[in-house]
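quick one, 95 residues, struct below
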Amino acid sequence: MEQQREVKNSSFAQVTHDKPDWGIFTYFYHNGSVDYLRSESLDSGQQLYRSRGNADDSKIFVANGEVTRSKGDQVGIEILTGQAIMDQNIKQKNF
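---
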């Protein structure tokens, strides 16, 4: 559901969106492919992230809309971050 409200001292209307259901995700990048797994809890997600060890070129851990851990090749981390943004699993910051 979208709502509009007037911003003081501005002729623009600001649109706000309902907060999505953030979750716990571990994204993996290996040999040019991207995959991810969703976890039911923070503990199980952290355990999954750790258990992958060095099996992937890069990996990121996303908890409640924010990347909290990353490991591996920087290009792979950027690719995974981009995929998580496209999946709407990372909060977008207003700059």
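Residues 30 and 57 are 5 Å apart (CA to CA).
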